[in-house]
Design a protein that fits this description.
The chain is mostly helical. It is built from 3 helices and no strands. Helix content is 71%, strand content 0%.
Length: 65
């Protein structure tokens, strides 16, 4: 792909692509932060549902023992 870009892309096309990337950077960052927040909420819900602490211990005791 890079070889094709180098061969056929004009300076204007490269500048336009760069501007688009920077224009959507904040949106991508916000989406990533929202995704991470949802993941953390799901992990917390799982820990609460199964009564598991951060180390994987069930009810404050080691799992399986």
């Amino acid at each position: 792909m890079n070889a094709c870009m180098l061969k056929y892309a004009t300076r204007e096309e490269k500048d336009r692509a760069r501007e688009e990337w920077f224009a959507t950077r904040d949106k991508r960052r916000e989406e990533n932060e929202a995704r991470e927040a949802r993941l953390q909420e799901a992990l917390q819900a799982r820990r609460e549902w199964y009564d598991v602490d951060e180390q994987g211990r069930i009810g404050g005791k080691k799992a399986g023992g």
